[in-house]
Each structure stands twice: as C-alpha cells, then as structure tokens.
Design a protein that fits this description.
The chain is mainly α. 77% of the residues lie in helices and 6% in strands. It has a domain at 129-286. It has a three-stranded antiparallel sheet with strand order 1-2-3, covered by helices on one side. Helix 1 packs antiparallel against helix 2 (28-42), helix 3 packs antiparallel against helix 4 (82-97) and helix 7 packs parallel to helix 9. The radius of gyration is 21 Å and the shape is globular.
C-alpha cells in the first residue's frame, strides 16, 4: 500500500468516525454526506499488494454478519452505535476480500484487520473490564482535565465519579465525563490502524511498532484531554447547548489531526525498514 493509499485510508476512517458521531448525535444530513465522501475516497485507492487467493466463504460470512447486526438492532429497536459501525465495516470488508479485483480485495483485507481489532478491544474493555472504564474516566480524563481548566481560572468541582459541576457566569453547569468522552474509541481505532498496517505491509520491527503503539496511546490521551478541556471552556463561555454542538464535531476532527501524525510515524518506520533491508542485502552481496 503506497503513501497515497494510506492517506486515503486514514481519511476514510476519520470520515466513518464522523459519520457515527454526526448521524447519531448531530446532523443526519452531514452524516450521510460524510458517508458518501468516504465511499468516493475509497474508490480513489490504487492498491499494489501481492495477489492472494480469495474465498467465497468470506463473502458469505460478511453477509451473515451484516444481516445479524441489522436483525439485532431491529429486534431490540436500538440505535446504531460505534460498535455497529465497525461490525458493518467488518461485514463489508469480508465481502470485499472475496472480490477478484486486487485493489478492492486488498482494501477489504486492511479493513478486516481494523474492524476485528477494534471490536476485540471494544468487547474486552467494555465487556470483561467494564469496571476499568469508570476508573479510567475518573482518573485519566475527568481529574486531569479539571486541573487544566482550573489553571485558567475556571471554578469546577468533582461531584461524582464521572460528574463535575462548573461554576459558570450564567449559573452552575453539571457535566458528565464518560462514555465517548473517555477518548477510548479513537484510541482503539488508532491502535487498530497500526495492527492493520503492520499486518498487511508485513512490517516485522517489533521494537519500533511497540514504540509507535505507546506513542499513539499517549498522544491520543493528550489529544482527548485537550478536547474535553475545550468542551469545558465552550460550556463556560457559551452554554451547554453550544458545548453539545462542539462535542459532536470536535472529536472526529481531532482524530484526523492525530491520525495524520500516526501516518507520518508509520511512513518513517517503513523508510527505516527499507533502508536497513537494503543495507543488509548490500553487505550480504559483499
């Protein structure tokens, strides 16, 4: 996958995150528009991966996954969420993996890794380790962001594990810092991209990959702290309605910026690996 395609992959992932946020919590029209743009962006990809065998069973599995998720939501009359989006992506990606056209199949393979990794992380932390989420929200998001806001003179008090009361000029505002505010969704997605990239591009430098994973987690955490602190500031100055509007749009926009940095990191790893491989081959020839 060349750098042109990687740029498009990150753009598509950011757009899908925007689709989830906008369609579920913001403008449905904007959500549909972002989805259309994502599809158009995917059509511009020109993969050059090595040819692999395909299986019709991938398509069958993908169709079954799509039907199962749709049936579940219809039966429970539930709204589509982030996990549904990634499940849809998995189903569509499996179908794409069974198509004979190489560029579509390669894109499908990459997206399969992304969606499976995200679903695994989501299920692990929001299922098995659900108790950890509340602790993470409190100690890793609420407390640090509250201290950041206090540094600029805004009075705010903790009144619950995931709840603060901000003393704004127009009256006290109670805010809940939990769920999407934890920033874990974006973190999971960024980690999923690294897993997919290293798997499809056969990158084997474990030391650099581990370092990049660690840096990604730290950068994603800092970016989310800045996002939450910005939402505090918007609520303080313009009210809670303005904050909710910013909440819908700000997260996936910041994701684009962070993902771009991740892209640069992955590209650097690739260049270093190529240089080391070339140097090793030259030494062997001598």
């Amino acid at each position: 996958m060349n750098i042109h395609d990687r740029m498009i992959v990150f753009l598509v992932l950011a757009l899908f995150l925007g689709v989830t946020m906008e369609y579920g919590h913001g403008s449905k029209l904007l959500g549909i528009l972002l989805f259309v743009i994502a599809i158009l962006a995917m059509s511009r990809m020109t993969f050059t991966a090595a040819r692999r065998s395909t299986s019709v069973w991938y398509a069958v599995a993908g169709i079954l996954i799509l039907l199962a998720d749709i049936a579940y939501n219809v039966y429970n009359q539930s709204e589509l969420g982030t996990l549904d989006t990634m499940t849809f992506l998995l189903g569509i990606s499996l179908i794409a993996s069974a198509i004979k056209r190489e560029d579509i199949r390669s894109m499908g393979e990459f997206s399969v890794y992304v969606s499976i990794t995200f679903i695994a992380l989501f299920t692990l932390f929001y299922g098995t380790f659900s108790w950890f989420i509340h602790e993470f929200d409190h100690y890793a998001v609420l407390m640090p962001s509250m201290h950041l806001i206090k540094l600029i003179g805004i009075s705010v008090d903790v009144i619950g594990t995931e709840t603060v009361c901000m003393h704004a000029p127009g009256g006290d505002i109670t805010l809940t810092i939990g769920g999407p505010c934890s920033g874990l969704y974006s973190m999971f997605l960024l980690i999923s991209v690294i897993v997919a990239y290293t798997a499809t591009e056969n990158i084997r430098d474990a030391r650099r990959i581990t370092a990049l994973l660690g840096a990604t987690i730290v950068v994603a955490w800092i970016a989310n702290l800045l996002r939450v602190s910005t939402l505090y500031l918007v609520a303080y100055r313009y009210g809670q309605d303005a904050m909710m509007t910013a909440h819908t749009h700000l997260g996936w926009i910041i994701f684009v910026v962070v993902a771009w940095g991740l892209l640069l990191g992955l590209s650097k790893i690739e260049r270093i690996e190529r240089a080391e491989k070339k140097e090793k081959e030259e030494k062997e020839e001598v």
